[in-house]
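Structural prep section.
Before we set up the soaks we want a predicted structure of the protein with guanosine-5'-monophosphate in place, mainly to decide which crystallisation condition to try first. Input record follows.
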Amino acid sequence: MKQGKILCVSGPSGVGKGTVISKLMEKRQDFVLSISMTTRNPRGEEKDGVDYYFCSAAEFQDLITKKEILEFDVYSGEYYGTPVAPIREFVRNKQNVILDITIAGALQVKKIFPEALMVFLLPPSMEALYDRLLKRDTETEDQIQARIKQAEIEILHVEKFEYAILNDKIEDTVSKLEAIIIAEECKYYNQSAILKKFFDL
Ligand code: 5GP
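Run finished without errors. Recording the tokens verbatim:
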């Protein structure tokens, strides 16, 4: 259903946001993913314009000054942010969009778009989170330790989100996320077309 919904999927690094989002998008082709800007270096097979728009810190700061970034965060010493123009376009075209985003970033989005759907993914345990970061093999031990420390702080903000899903079994997490979206779509104020058709509201 095209509603121009903004879905923020947040949670600590390594919790599995990327996998959950791509599985959800296989089921829900009415959602597109917002491509973020970052100053961190590409990892492995990552491509510019597909996984991220990779840029320098000076370019990023310039975009902030020009107000071309909807929200941003500094994570592990690197900038991450959502380009504003595509989001404006998605909302205008009633295109649903997913943001893979830090907790602080998601809270900024909520201030601008109070109707954004906020979902927090939790790891089954801190040990499981460490194991996932280790298996991913994209960070050094020091970087993993920094991400774990950051995760411990981030998890304290779960109460600021509307929904929390413990990401243990990926299929269950995706089903729950889909259920949240469906429930959102069933809110009467998201169904103005139906109300109009039957009740001339
Ligand atoms: P990674 O380096 O693992 O790709 O991403 C690090 C963190 O940055 C993840 O928690 C990811 O969700 C977050 N992130 C990715 N894009 C954005 C963005 O546009 N804005 C914010 N605030 N966080 C982002």
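Observations: The longest helix spans residues 170-186.
Flagged for discussion at group meeting.
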